[in-house]
Structure formats: structure tokens, C-alpha cells
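Figure 6 in text form: structure in, sequence out.
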């Protein structure tokens, strides 16, 4: 018998496995490239959001403290005897 016997067919399971591995490598590489390109944009947006939130909270807490301290003992709350 020769090597190309009719009982020996192509190894389809091996070909499919090889195709699956190549497809995974290609898709994984593409996804990693896309994420690394967009990561800098996401980082800038995140830092800007954190900065604006921090500054906004700082100003808001200052305004709240100013309102509560001046609201307790205003000029209308004092009597002539206390002056």
C-alpha cells in the first residue's frame, strides 16, 4: 500500500484546531491594540472627571460652611441689650 491510502483522510480536527488558534491570536492581538490606543483617551477623561469632581466638592463644601456659619448669629438675631 502507498502512503496516500484511501483510509487516511486529511486530519480535519488538527486543521480546525490550528485555525482556531490562529483566529484567537489575531482577535486577541487586535483587541489589545485597540485597547492600548484608546486607553490614553480614557485616562485623560477619567483624570479630568476626578479633578472637576474634587474642585466642585471643595467649592460646594466652602459655600455650605459659609452659609451655616453666617446663618446662626446674623445681625437680625441680636437684641439691643446684647449690643
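Output sequence:
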Amino acid at each position: 500500500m502507498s502512503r496516500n491510502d484511501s483510509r487516511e483522510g486529511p486530519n480535519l480536527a488538527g486543521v480546525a484546531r490550528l485555525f482556531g488558534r490562529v483566529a484567537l491570536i489575531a482577535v486577541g492581538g487586535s483587541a489589545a491594540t485597540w485597547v492600548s490606543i484608546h486607553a490614553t483617551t480614557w485616562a485623560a477623561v477619567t483624570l479630568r472627571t476626578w479633578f472637576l469632581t474634587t474642585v466642585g466638592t471643595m467649592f460646594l463644601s466652602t459655600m455650605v460652611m459659609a452659609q451655616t456659619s453666617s446663618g446662626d448669629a446674623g445681625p437680625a438675631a441680636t437684641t439691643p441689650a446684647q449690643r
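Caption detail: Residues 13-69 form one domain.
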